[in-house]
Amino acid sequence: MDAVVLLIGLVVGILAAMGAGALSGMRIGAEALGAQLAAYMGALYGLLSGTAAVIVGLILHAIIMNL
Description:
The protein is mostly helical and 67 residues long. It has helices at residues 3-33, 35-65. It has one domain (3-65).
């Protein structure tokens, strides 16, 4: 896998995870915490879990493509 494709996949995957985390945080915790804090917390947890998922996905993709 080309290094540029790897970097693009990593960046886009992390940004998507942060966006999805922020949206779900706003949807779930807006009443209890306020929309802004819930979005920040969702983006943080989206970053943490999404980064791991993106890295594992890219590693599996590289392994499958090299078989």
